[in-house]
Amino acid sequence: MNATGTVLVIGATGTTGSRTAAQLIAAGRRVRAASRRATRLPGADAVRFDWYDPDTHGAALAGAGGVYLVPPVGDPDPAAVMLPFLHRARAAGVQRAVLLSSSAIPEGGPGVGAVHQALPGLFEQWAVLRPSWFMQNFTGAHVHARSIREDGVILTATGTGRVGFVDADDIAAVAVRALTDDRAPDTDLVLTGPEALGYDDIAAVVTEVTGRPVVHRQLTYEQMRDRLAAQMPLEFAAMLAGMDRAIAEGAEDRTTDAVQRLTGRPAHSFRAVAERELKDPWPAPGTSPAR
């Protein structure tokens, strides 16, 4: 890919897509911001894109040399819609693809693992970003963040397991390098923050930063699955609860230096992100934040 070519950012209004688009624009790159509502972003060309509507794919791909791929949310089999699109992208001249996956899903694994497996055979240059759990799960619109704001509690089935939580800004910074460096990484990259933390540790940091008591309440796998199933399909809820159980068993208790290797600077700590993103006064427990 020519480093000055247009980059298609799929999911450009999401947690990592919005940050990747913004950082690409700040670096002077041409960005096509793709979302279901074609939301306009300053400095980017907006285009409507829906994974499940192939009629939206052609305009998104026209003239793109690289693409940042955020899989469809909540789909247990994203390869069914992503692989046809990726074949079309290759035929349209896309040379570099960077896929957002997960530290919990290896190449060839379930869900997006099948897309990971196919990527090297489809594009001349590629990378798969496998971030750990996002720090923004506790500061944004995620169920954990809402539970913290409204009830002062974090509910998980992770026990005392630890996670190398990662800042979404750091994920985006790695994505930008993978998309624009002279040569793509051509590998998968497990992305973490600088330390592995338990959910008790997260609750303690949020308490200290906000001045409001927050606790971690441990659930069983079954309790977590059923709680999530009230908000999403049972199959996806079971998968997410299973990831909590894997954390309890130590699957995510690790850190890597991938952020520093790719960006040239250390990964942000959770305390730094909490201090950056939890500045506004919070409502009292049991009340909803102002909208």
Please report the number of helical segments. Answer: 11
Mean pLDDT: 93
Biggest sheet features: 7 strands, parallel
- State the shape: globular
CA radius of gyration: 19 Å
What is the correct CATH architecture of the largest domain?
Answer: 3-Layer(aba) Sandwich
Derived from helix and strand composition plus strand pairing, the structural class reads alpha/beta
- Major sheet: arrangement of strands: 3-2-1-4-5-6-9
Query: How many structural domains are formed by the residues?
Result: 2
Q: In sequence order, what are the helices and strands, one letter per element?
A: EHEEHEHEHEHEEHEEHEHHHH
CATH homologous superfamily classification of the largest domain: NAD(P)-binding Rossmann-like Domain
Report the uncertain regions. 285-291
Helix residue percentage: 25-40%
Strand content: 15-25%
The total of beta strands comes to 11
CATH level-1 class of the largest domain: Alpha Beta
CATH topology group of the largest domain: Rossmann fold
Q: How far is the N terminus from the C terminus?
A: 43 Å
Pfam family, one: NmrA
Domain NAD(P)-binding: 11-108
Protein name: NAD(P)-dependent oxidoreductase
Domain NmrA-like: 128-252
